[in-house]
């Protein structure tokens, strides 16, 4: 049976941002799977990563070629079982897949916000999600989970709304982005802003900065893989052209792969959203916000944690997950930790892995 889904909208009047600015009005696009039980205790919130969206599982029609980005994990009989759980996934604030972001119309100017959109934080993103959860009348989520920047959101839920969460599964993530992570984000931003079509963000009535966005995606995608996974996928395989004739055109298979990733990304994502969401990730730092990581989790004693990292993830290395685990243990907060063997790099959390599925499903069944 094909799991079908549809995009829905939740609208609310305003949100005061951590910067002090007020954003109004706001639309949050979301999708749900399964049914909310009578006491509303079976809700699982899934948070997506930088380039993701609300389409976490299923298809919009039976003829769709591709299912949602975590379809291997979410569905009937799967680890996040839609026969047992009511699953919610929203497009984050600042996004470009239905939620209010830079491409949305600014009510003051009747034109897209572009760079007039205020800077947002992971805290702002979670505060908007909280409005959506309140809309459902859900007092306490069974679980909040996500990988990468989705894991940052899960951690933010645990420290800001501990009474509204029973358990949290942060995956392949960190409590603060490293200098290396910020550096890669900055390269992506500069590629976008240096594109001749960027026009200070005001490109909605003309050609978008597709070349710059494609390069940003290519750089990002390199960080999602590992040296071993790239070697297995591509090695030094060529496309068969004479290297002296092809000069700087595509010759290696890895070049073709990266250009395909960049081009396909420009067809579904807004460059300004990329700038804003990446910057929100840069500013995420629980230790700085609360004084220390231990202090950040001091109020989360009623929340159960499962922290998962991957051995080949060099974008969010395992030691960053271990720092989270140590801070939780210092607060006597129940936490399980799995540093999973994988050669896939950061993207390992998106791949079909029976062991990973069993770990998630087992934890949820006892949450």
Layout of strands and helices, then pairs:
Blueprint: E1 8-12, E2 15-16, E3 22-23, E4 26-33, E5 43-47, E6 74-75, E7 80-81, E8 86-90, E9 105-106, E10 111-112, H1 122-135, E11 143-147, H2 149-160, E12 167-171, H3 179-193, H4 210-224, H5 227-233, H6 243-246, H7 253-266, H8 271-283, H9 286-290, H10 293-296, E13 304-310, H11 318-330, E14 335-340, H12 354-365
Parallel strand pairs: 5-8, 5-11, 6-7, 11-12, 12-13, 13-14
Antiparallel strand pairs: 1-4, 2-3, 4-8, 9-10
Helix pairs in contact: 1-2, 3-4, 3-8, 4-7
The proportion of residues in beta strands is 15-25%
The CATH superfamily label of the largest domain reads Alpha/Beta hydrolase fold, catalytic domain
Gross geometry: globular
Strand order of the largest sheet: 1-4-8-5-11-12-13-14
Just give the CATH class of the largest domain.
Alpha Beta
Major pleated sheet: 8 strands, mixed
Would you count the extended β strands for me?
14
Number of domains: 2
Based on CA atoms alone, the radius of gyration comes out at 20 Å
Which architecture of the largest domain does the CATH hierarchy give at level 2? Answer: 3-Layer(aba) Sandwich
Discrete helix count: 12
**Class by alpha and beta content:** alpha/beta
Fraction of residues in H or I helices: 25-40%
CATH topology of the largest domain: Rossmann fold
What's the rounded overall pLDDT mean?
Answer: 96
From N to C, what is the helix and strand string? EEEEEEEEEEHEHEHHHHHHHHEHEH
Please report the distance between the alpha carbons of the first and last residues: 28 Å
Low-confidence stretches: none
